[in-house]
Write a structure and sequence with these properties.
transmembrane, Neuraminidase, 365 residues, alpha+beta, signal, 2 domains, 36% strand, 3 helices, 4-stranded antiparallel beta sheet, single chain
Length: 365
């Protein structure tokens, strides 16, 4: 290698190291705009086998798939469900290759709360399990979000009754957790959606459930065997917490209509910390999160509030990737570190080559 070539390579590396974050641009978030008249999706999940999103409908007995490019197809239409029911929480049971859907009838429709399971290969319904009322229920329940463990057991939150149902892989339903901790914290009855208690729920591969509560902003850790709940000690509450997902590596993301909180824990969620917050478009009323392709997290903008207020007629909706500026900055730091290591390696290699050439010259002379 000539001295001029070595000097040019060195200048190139120094130029890279000298670039600021504005010059090393992180990629832009993935945005999917799609059309499906009067869909108003509340729940969203990602089917890794088919590589598409699945969404439900606020007033139609239909589940649709949405591709990365925004192509919409009817995946399942179930006319056996009561007319005008709302399909809320969705998740994929990867063990049994099933789609699980929490279904609720909004007043003044007759009471109906159930979990439906559909075979993703045949798209036929495997079971439709009515969720039992607790004897002490004074108000009609609301089946909301759903999570699934590695045995195919599903866990459904009751947002009005503040308890969790369990439905096994055969469709047998029971009340799983009525932990007193769920009703231990005061609720401001003047706040929006004060009626909504337990909401988003996820299952951790370490063998427990995490669930958030909308009207208190609290998070609870629930034992998968006993159903006992414990408060997760956080550095801040999450008011109006709604959707919830867990990313590879254990990072939990929770959304409200206004923002996404990113949380992590060092002790399996005895305590946790909110380490970043990402603003959302409140006017489009985001409701749910899911982890999509390559571990990217997406939120659905379903405009569901319009539907519940009777303002029908919308045809366009959105799915958008949630990205953390803080994590992007940390990625930029790693770029600088790697470039610095590359420069150090280059300088070491250049020194070694110089020594080698000097030794060869001495032997030749």
């Amino acid at each position: 290698m000539t001295r001029s070539m070595s000097f040019s390579a060195l200048i190139f590396l120094l130029m890279l190291l000298g670039q600021g974050p504005t010059q090393i641009q992180a990629r832009k978030p993935h945005i999917i705009n799609f059309r499906s008249p009067n869909l108003y999706p509340e729940g969203i999940t990602w089917d890794p086998s088919a590589q598409h999103f699945i969404l439900g409908s606020a007033r139609d007995r239909t589940l649709v798939s949405v591709s990365d490019a925004g192509v919409v197809e009817t995946l399942i239409h179930d006319p056996d469900l009561p007319e005008n029911v709302t399909i809320l929480g969705l998740t994929i049971d990867t063990v049994n290759n099933r789609l699980l859907a929490a279904i609720h009838a909004v007043e003044p429709l007759p009471q109906f709360d159930a979990l439906a399971a559909y075979d993703l290969r045949t798209r036929r319904r495997v079971f439709l399990s009515l969720l039992p009322n607790d004897e002490g229920d004074l108000k009609r329940p609301t089946a909301n979000a759903v999570a699934v463990d590695f045995k195919g057991n599903a866990y459904v939150t009751n947002s009005i009754g503040n308890y969790i149902w369990k439905v096994n892989d055969r469709g047998e339903a029971s009340i799983f957790s009525k932990s007193p901790i769920f009703n231990a914290y005061p609720v401001d009855r003047e706040s929006p959606f004060s009626f909504c208690g337990l909401n988003g729920i996820v299952y951790s591969s370490k063998g427990y459930l995490l669930v958030v509560q909308s009207n208190t902003g609290k998070m609870f850790k629930v034992n998968e065997d006993s159903g006992k709940g414990n408060l997760v000690i956080l550095n801040e509450d999450m008011p109006l917490a709604d959707g919830m997902t867990i990313r590879k590596g254990g990072v939990v993301l929770v959304n409200s209509p206004k923002k996404v909180w990113m949380l992590k824990s060092q002790d399996s969620w005895g305590e946790g910390v909110v380490y970043d917050e990402i603003a959302l478009d409140e006017d489009r009323f985001p409701t749910s999160l899911t982890v999509g392709n390559d571990g990217r997290v997406y939120v659905v903008y379903g405009h569901v509030l319009e539907a519940f207020m009777g303002n029908w007629g919308r045809g366009s909706f959105g799915i958008e990737e949630v990205m953390s500026e803080k994590e992007n900055r940390e990625d930029s730091v790693w770029i600088f570190v790697l470039l610095g290591l590359g420069l150090a390696y280059f300088m070491f290699w250049r020194f070694q080559m110089g020594q080698l050439i000097t030794n060869v010259d001495k032997k030749t002379n």
